[in-house]
């Protein structure tokens, strides 16, 4: 079979997205400039792809406005079963869109705290300090489990969460996403059932699709997973993993209740599955916040941590904590796939953790977050919005606005007014389903113009 051209590949991806409802009849496709930026294609490639869709009768060009979906494409149920990569393409597309910062737009839907909240870390100072000592090790591969000194500091960090571990129970990663990828590669085979929260962390859904896993959605309630639905899945299926976020849940901002956390640990033991506790936002919450991995003490759980949100996404430093046997296996898998993680980045984080500056930085982050959450909740109450959960401090709030049935439509309405939000459908394993909710970053909610626009 002849290899598809770039234009044909792009056209096929768009046909798939039209078919599964990512773009519905009457909706405008990304502009030529947006598509060029997102995919790195030339203008001619994008034009050829759009013209191919027009030739199929799927889209129509409107002078001065762009290309619009004219009719639905055949759904994936009517065609051959797509390959894992093809199933993951929707998530890849969404991630590209989410990572683009439009100049002049308020990033209400962004997943990171403002850069201003992180600048006091002064990474340049720590880098110079590293370059003055032990510079020869920076020219070699690191340990398969990660920098030894950093892992010792991570033992102390876990102890502050009431999780007891040794350095041999920790493997470092290129951030939390790499950690999730290693866990999926180790434990999941095509066709395996996996429990995920709905709404939940949408890049995880793409990873599971790529692996060929069967996702079982467990609704996320304001106090944690819906245990009734979870137990129904457990009675019928034999899932290997349940990916959860105990606190600071992305996207709802909710925290698990102690009762549900204890019950989850019991169910993991009864039904022989592993709890993957993704805690990438740990530094934004008090250390006393309950975590299922602390109740379980890493017996049937894996704890995933990261410094991307609290220090710098550019450093790409995360970690997994678990039993020694599992960590040994994940360390071998990491070595096979990536040889090692970055010694320079890990030593940078190690030096940051060595100084009391990090603790002061985290406390300042939490104070800022608490103030932003309080102000954001007040503004949302004033305009009559429904808030899913009302945490004392959370980077995210899950919100439904009055008279909004589909957050995608609200997204289109706000873009010309300078606001970018994250519509709820992208956080569901069933992304074609209409969703009225949206994720908002509290750091950008204190905006008089936004309040006026949302009050209209």
Automatic annotation (TrEMBL):
InterPro entries: Aminotransferase_I/II_large (IPR004839), HTH_trans_reg/aminotransferase (IPR051446), PyrdxlP-dep_Trfase (IPR015424), PyrdxlP-dep_Trfase_major (IPR015421), PyrdxlP-dep_Trfase_small (IPR015422), Tscrpt_reg_HTH_GntR (IPR000524), WH-like_DNA-bd_sf (IPR036388), WH_DNA-bd_sf (IPR036390). One of its GO terms (molecular function) is DNA-binding transcription factor activity. Gene3D superfamilies: Aspartate Aminotransferase, domain 1 (3.90.1150.10), Type I PLP-dependent aspartate aminotransferase-like (Major domain) (3.40.640.10), Winged helix-like DNA-binding domain superfamily/Winged helix DNA-binding domain (1.10.10.10). The keyword Transcription regulation applies. Keywords: DNA-binding, Pyridoxal phosphate, Transcription, Transcription regulation. Residues 4-72 form the HTH gntR-type domain. The keyword Protease does not apply. Signal peptide: none annotated. PANTHER family: HTH-TYPE TRANSCRIPTIONAL REGULATORY PROTEIN GABR (PTHR46577), TRANSCRIPTIONAL REGULATORY PROTEIN (PTHR46577:SF2). In the C-terminal section; belongs to the class-I pyridoxal-phosphate-dependent aminotransferase family. This is Putative HTH-type transcriptional regulator. It comes from Pseudomonas wadenswilerensis.
């Amino acid at each position: 079979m002849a290899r598809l051209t770039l234009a044909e590949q792009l056209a096929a991806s768009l046909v798939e997205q039209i078919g599964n409802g990512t773009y519905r009849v009457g909706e405008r496709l990304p502009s030529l400039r947006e598509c060029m930026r997102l995919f790195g294609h030339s203008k001619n490639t994008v034009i050829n792809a759009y013209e191919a869709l027009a030739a199929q009768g799927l889209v129509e060009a409107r002078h001065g406005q762009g290309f619009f979906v004219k009719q639905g494409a055949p759904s994936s149920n009517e065609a051959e079963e797509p390959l894992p990569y093809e199933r993951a393409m929707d998530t890849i597309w969404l991630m590209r869109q989410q990572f683009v910062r439009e100049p002049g737009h308020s990033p209400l839907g962004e997943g990171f705290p403002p850069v201003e909240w992180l600048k006091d870390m002064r990474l340049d100072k720590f880098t110079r300090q590293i370059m003055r000592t032990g510079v020869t090790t920076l020219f070699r591969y690191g340990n398969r489990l990660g920098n030894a000194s950093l892992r010792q500091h991570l033992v102390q960090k876990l102890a502050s969460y009431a999780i007891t571990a040794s350095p041999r129970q920790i493997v470092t990663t290129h951030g939390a996403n790499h950690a999730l990828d290693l866990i999926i590669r180790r434990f999941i085979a095509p066709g395996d059932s996996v429990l995920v929260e709905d709404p939940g962390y949408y890049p995880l859904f793409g990873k599971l699709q790529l692996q060929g896993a069967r996702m079982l959605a467990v609704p996320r309630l304001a106090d944690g997973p819906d245990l009734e639905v979870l137990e129904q899945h457990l009675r019928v299926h034999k899932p290997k993993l349940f990916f959860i976020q105990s606190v600071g849940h992305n996207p709802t901002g909710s925290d698990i209740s102690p009762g549900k956390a204890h019950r989850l640990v019991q169910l993991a033991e009864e039904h022989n599955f592993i709890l993957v506790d993704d805690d990438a936002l740990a530094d934004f919450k008090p250390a006393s916040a309950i975590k299922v991995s602390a109740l379980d003490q890493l017996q049937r759980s894996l704890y995933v941590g990261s410094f991307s949100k609290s220090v710098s996404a550019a450093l790409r430093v995360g970690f997994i904590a678990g039993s020694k046997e599992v960590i040994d296996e994940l360390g071998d898998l990491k070595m096979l796939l990536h040889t090692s993680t970055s010694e320079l980045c890990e030593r940078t984080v190690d030096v940051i953790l060595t100084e009391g500056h990090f603790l002061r930085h985290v406390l300042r982050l939490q104070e800022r977050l608490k103030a932003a959450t309080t102000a954001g909740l007040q503004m949302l109450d004033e305009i009559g919005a429904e808030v899913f959960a009302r945490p004392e401090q959370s980077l995210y709030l899950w919100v439904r606005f009055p008279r909004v049935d589909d957050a995608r439509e609200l997204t289109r309405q706000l873009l010309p007014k300078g606001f970018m939000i994250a519509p709820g459908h992208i956080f569901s394993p069933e992304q074609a389903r209409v969703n009225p909710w949206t994720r908002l970053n509290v750091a950008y909610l204190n905006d008089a113009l936004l309040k006026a626009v949302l009050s209209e």
